[in-house]
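Now for a typical sample entry:
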Amino acid sequence: MEWIQAFDILTIQETKLDKSFPDSQFTIDDYNMFRQDRKKGGGGIMVYIRKSIPSHRIRVKSNEVEAIVIDIQLGQQYMSLLCAYKPPAVTNNTFTNETKEGRTWLDICDIYDMVNLITEPTTICKTKESCLDIIATNAPVFELHSGTIEAGLSDHKLVYTVLNRKVMKPKTLITIGRCFKQFDEKAFNRDLECVAFNMAYVFDDINDICWAWEKMYTDVLNDHAPIKSKKIRSAPGQSKFITPEIRKVMWKRNALKRKYYKTRSSVDWESYRTQRN
């Protein structure tokens, strides 16, 4: 499988494996492997991640969709990778109805502004072309280019995306402020009492008096609460407008909406409407 070396991360759906196939049979040098088999055969998914990329699997449970969730670190960026497969037996209505399972994916797309990077058909038959295989992200700015490859192993094309590592480097912002971590109010006041503020009035001009007074006060303040600079790294793919507080409000709105669809009560509708507005 030399061709796999072209990928840093490779996800495979419909592996059709079970526990009778040991991991050693699919191990590839320099890659960590994550797999999830279906108990009754068919389906199944597998993920290969290059060992140079820190990765950690997050355990999730779904009765409808087969999924593997992995936290990864690319440079200084932390991301969550979801590899999911919808079996043909699961209807599309599962993702459009108002049940808890059906709303989860739509809520994620809504809150995190998910965008599909694959814009061309991934499966073609005599009567129609469909884009059934997608790569969705909330940080399309990281994308260098995406597309499909005719691998010849399935009637579905292989979908891929290439990330722009230069863009993924967080911007460094420098903030300047006073550090009150070791500030002692009593000691600060004692030192202020020792300052000869009356010396400022040797000047006749009011501006000079203000300058001298402020200079003496600031010198004491700098000793007790020094000015320090702090570097803050911000990811360019993150929205500047959707703050953690706004996300919490959006989650609450969606939770109230799901509750209303479950109970259909006027009280729950009013709670959802109020939160929405």
